[in-house]
Specification:
Elements (H helix, E strand, L loop, with lengths): L2 H4 L12 H8 L12 H5 L24 H4 L24 H6 L22 H5 L19 H5 L30 H22 L2 H44 L33
C-alpha cells in the first residue's frame, strides 16, 4: 500500500469534538486574518463556491482606509468589512478635528492631518484663460507657462508636462457662491443644455417609448389643468362666503341706545357696564 493512501496532508477533512467549544465559548478561530485567500476566486475561476476551504474576499487590495471601529476593537463585520483591518499609518482615516477646526490638540493623534489647501480644486475657468471672480474665487488659480508644443499642435509629455495646456472647451455651468452670477448667460446656457439633452434623448429613444412619454406628458398637463380649475373654484367660493358675511354684518339691526334701560340706575341711554353712577346710586 503506498504512503499517499494512508497519510492525508489535508487536515481540514477531520474535525474534533472540542472545536465547537473553542469557537463558541472561547471565540478563537472566527474570522481570523491568518486564513489563506483563494487564488482561484481572485482570478474568477473557483468552482467550489461555498464549499471552498479557502477565503473568498472581494477587492481586498482596494481597501484604502483603515477601519476606525477596528482600531478600537469594536468592528463586528470581520472579513466582510469594506475597510482595512491592519495598522497602517499611511492609510489611516482623516482626523475630524483637524479637518473641521484646522488644529488638533492630541499630540499622539494617529489619524491623518491633511492640509486644507490640498483639497481645493483647480479653477476650470482660470485654466481656460479667465476667471471673473479673480482673487476671491473659492477654487485654486494655478499659474503655468503656456506649453509651446501644445500650442503648435502636440505635446509628447501629455498630462505630465510641467507647463500649462490651455483648454478651449467651456467648463460645466455651476452656480458659484463667491461672486455675482450673470443670470442671462447662465439661463441661456442652461436652456441650451436642456435642449441638447432632450434632443439626444428623443433620438435615442424608440418610437413606442416616445409615444408613451407623450401620453404621460398629456396626462400631466390634464391633471395640472384640473388642479388649477379646482383652485380657482375654491377661491371663488371663499370670496362669495366673505361677501355674504360682510353683507350680513352691514344689514344687522341693532337697538338704539335710547331704547336701552340700565338695570343699575334705571335710566335709559346706556348699558349697565357703562353706567356712570354705579350700583349703589339707583334710588
Amino acid at each position: 500500500m503506498p504512503d499517499t493512501d494512508f497519510f492525508h496532508t489535508n487536515g481540514k477533512n477531520y474535525s474534533f469534538d472540542f472545536e465547537d467549544f473553542i469557537k463558541t465559548e472561547i471565540g478563537l478561530g472566527n474570522n481570523s486574518d491568518s486564513d489563506q485567500i483563494c487564488q482561484d476566486f481572485l482570478r474568477g475561476t473557483c468552482t467550489k463556491g461555498m464549499k471552498c476551504e479557502f477565503k473568498h474576499t472581494t477587492n481586498f487590495r482596494e481597501k484604502a482606509v483603515v477601519c476606525k471601529h477596528w482600531l478600537r476593537g469594536l468592528c463586528k463585520k470581520g472579513d466582510q468589512c469594506e475597510f482595512l483591518h491592519e495598522f497602517n499609518m499611511r492609510k489611516m482615516p482623516e482626523c475630524w478635528f483637524y479637518s473641521r477646526y484646522g488644529e488638533c490638540s492630541n499630540e499622539d493623534c494617529m489619524y491623518l492631518h491633511i492640509d486644507p489647501e490640498s483639497k481645493i480644486k483647480e479653477c476650470a475657468w482660470y485654466a481656460r484663460g479667465f476667471c471673473k471672480h479673480g482673487p476671491h474665487c473659492r477654487h485654486k488659480h494655478v499659474r503655468k507657462v503656456v506649453c509651446q508644443l501644445y500650442l503648435s499642435g502636440f505635446c509628447p509629455k501629455g498630462s505630465d508636462c510641467p507647463n500649462g495646456h490651455p483648454k478651449y472647451e467651456l467648463p460645466t455651468v455651476q452656480r458659484d457662491h463667491d461672486g455675482p452670477e450673470d443670470e442671462g448667460t447662465l439661463k441661456y446656457s442652461m436652456e441650451n443644455e436642456e435642449n441638447q439633452r432632450t434632443g439626444q434623448q428623443q433620438q435615442q429613444t424608440p418610437p413606442q417609448q416616445q409615444q408613451y412619454q407623450q401620453h404621460q406628458h398629456q396626462q400631466q398637463q390634464h391633471q395640472q389643468h384640473q388642479q388649477h380649475q379646482q383652485h380657482q373654484h375654491h377661491q371663488q367660493h371663499q370670496q362669495q362666503h366673505q361677501q355674504h358675511h360682510q353683507h350680513q354684518q352691514q344689514h344687522h339691526n341693532y337697538r338704539s341706545l335710547s331704547e336701552v334701560t340700565c338695570f343699575k340706575c334705571g335710566e335709559k341711554g346706556h348699558f349697565a357696564n357703562r353706567c356712570p353712577r354705579g350700583q349703589g346710586n339707583r334710588y
